[in-house]
Every structure is written in C-alpha cells, then in structure tokens.
C-alpha cells in the first residue's frame, strides 16, 4: 500500500532512490531505553517511563500526520512481569496517565485505539482505562494505535495453536485447509497487515519476543536514541530510512 508523504525536506535528486510516494502502512516500535535515560540524569528508572509517555504522544501525532495506517507500540511484554513489583505497578498506571493527558488529542486526530496481548490478565484499573479508550475511539477511522500490552510472540503463537487445535477437534477447521493465512487469523494481530517497518530505540538489536511471526519480511531500523528523547523528527527520519530500502520479499 502506498501513501503520499508530504513532509520530506530532501530533494529527490539528492537521493535518487527515495520513493517519495510510499510510506509504510504498518510501523511497529520497541520503545526501549527509559531506564537508561533516567539513570543518565541521576533519576529513578520510573522517571524515564513517565517521560516516555510524552514520546508516545509525539510519535502518535507524527504517525497520524504521515498518514500511517497502523502504529503498534510494545508497551509491556510478557517478560516484563520479571521486573520489581514497584516498577510493574508504575508501568501498569501509564496507560491511564497517557490517556488522561492525550485522549482529547487522540480523538481530534481521528485515532482508534486497540490492543494485542493477554488483556484479561492486566490489573482492573489498567483494563478499565484502556477499554474506555477503545470504546471512545471505536468509530474513529484514521490511524490505528495498537498497544501491545502483556504481549509476547511465543505466548501468542501457543494460544493460536491451542485454539486452532480446538477448532480442528470440533471440525470447524480441517487440517487440509490450514495455511499461513488461516493460521494468522488465530494470532492477536488477526486482520492486521504485517509490519512494514520495525523500529527499536536505545541501541539494542533484538526482537525480544515481539511480532516474531508477523515480521518475517519487515524492515528493521535500530537506533541509539533513548525512547524519552524520541520526537516527530525522529519518526520522519525513520520513514525516510525505510524509503531507502529495497523490499524484495524473497524475490529479485
Ligand atoms: C523499556 O525501557 C520500556 C518499557 C518496558 C515500557 C514502555 C513504556 C513506555 C514507553 C511508556 C508509555 C506507555 C503507554 C502505554 C502510554 P526499559 O525500562 O527497558 O529501559 P532500559 O533498557 O534503559 O532499562
């Protein structure tokens, strides 16, 4: 899917291969480096998470302006439960904090909120805040802001296999009809196209159990910037880098 991206400052002749007309449809981000951002400033780790909330809004705003279809943000992984309870408690309050400040802007920008992950296992106060935002934004038809909360790819694939086997047992699905497309329907991302671009901040170069199935042909962009320092210009730079890539999907 190609979309016009009106924010480029660079001239076509400066970078002949740049495809000015194509923005990625689905961008996924591993928001990393909150703790180090805080530690660098002599602050407690949670100060980095608090600041990271504002970076989320800057990126959502940029993605909406750039006409991106889907923005998937890794907010809490199934492995993050291993952190100290005080930090987990803080992380679980972030969606409410974010929505308290930014839901009006999200509505103005016609953004729809959804989640992927094991939603039911979240604390009630987190679920309520997020569900309220899902309901309020349900009729918006601009950017889909997809929070991965309590998400892990292996957990997602295991759940998919179990539900699929149930459906095979009850003859809702036949083994012969099973293909990659049908399997994808059992994932949390059912119905969403695969990410075109996956960004990870803070210099780490790994997927950390994020969208393993879905990122088979995704372009990766790793950058040293720490998440709380991310702004609109950062996001547009990532889009520009993406547009310099040649995607072949295994072909020539
Ligand atoms: C990774 O940094 C970040 C997280 C585990 C939490 C991500 C959450 C936010 C960016 C806040 C916004 C969330 C919502 C839902 C609005 P880290 O703590 O692993 O950093 P470190 O690697 O430097 O320790």
Automatic annotation (TrEMBL):
Keyword Membrane: no
Binding site for Mg(2+): 32, 219
UniProt family annotation: Belongs to the UPP synthase family.
EC number: 2.5.1.-
Keywords associated with the record: Magnesium, Metal-binding, Transferase
The name this protein goes by in its record: Isoprenyl transferase
Top enzyme class: transferase
Active-site positions on this chain: 32, 80
GO molecular function, one term: ditrans,polycis-undecaprenyl-diphosphate synthase [(2E,6E)-farnesyl-diphosphate specific] activity
One Pfam match: Prenyltransf
Assembly and binders: Homodimer.
Native organism: Oceanobacillus piezotolerans
Cofactor: Mg(2+)
GO CC annotation terms, alphabetical: cytosol
Primary role: Catalyzes the condensation of isopentenyl diphosphate (IPP) with allylic pyrophosphates generating different type of terpenoids.
